[in-house]
Amino acid sequence: MKGTSVSESAQHGAIVDDSIPHSARIYDWWLGGKDNFAVDRATGAAMIEAIPTLREMAKENRRFVHRVARHLVAEAGIRQFLDIGTGIPTRPNLHEIAQEVAPETRVVYVDNDPIVLAHARALMVSSPEGRSTYIHADLREPEKILTDASLTETLDLNQPVALTLVAILMLLDDADDPMGRIRVLMDALPSGSYLAITHPTQDFAPEAVEVAVAAARNNGMTLVPRHRAEVEQFFQGWELIEPGVVPVLGWRPDQPVENPEAAYYWAGVARKR
Questions:
Q1: Which residue ranges form the domains of the chain, and what is each CATH number?
Q2: Tens digit of pLDDT for each residue in 90-112?
Q3: Spatial distance between the Cα atoms of 68 and 79, rounded to a whole number of angstroms
Q4: Peptide bond into 92 cis (omega under 30)
């Protein structure tokens, strides 16, 4: 497959654990996919019982990715993306959106679910001019991501890169030091790079979110919603672009939004000076 690769290290030792829910598979179920297990469906259903509109919120995260990709490629001139917490591929993927504007765009996808790995070759097919690569790795080990041969062969870290962390930092509790993990990645990127984040929050519906979080944790899954000020901290030292950290529905929407707080996620994009 021209323009596409999967890291060699990702092709060995990836074991699927169907006893513990995984966010990628839960999202897959919410989006109508079939690559999930009973534990994922049970957890996802329990969370929907608390927040009935969760399926639409998951779709809004995907729409945010599309809007960000178009903006950064068309208006900011970005030609490289590092997408961590990719999830099970749902078309159109980030690279397909970006390469519609600039076919030479290169994208490195990262996830730690073996099911995502199983789909990487089949679905992440790049344009001939660009490249799409998959790394099986964990955000908790950012140094391994940065030194993986697939990344260093695909991205030029001397040129601006867009780092996208969509609905992934919620899986790291404070003891995991999410700020420290992403700071390693941010520090490795040159001036002119961008950071895009979405993050679930309890700010809009605290009681419902508390019940949904408890449902996830009762099934062995870490899920940490954060307040707006906490999400803003992840961008520390970089310059937030308009409109700043806002509800995901309100980040440069394609059309007017009646109630931006209908999806319980903060979203923002920042540029490294």
A1: 4-271 (3.40.50.150)
A2: 888 899 999 999 999 999 999 99
A3: 13
A4: yes
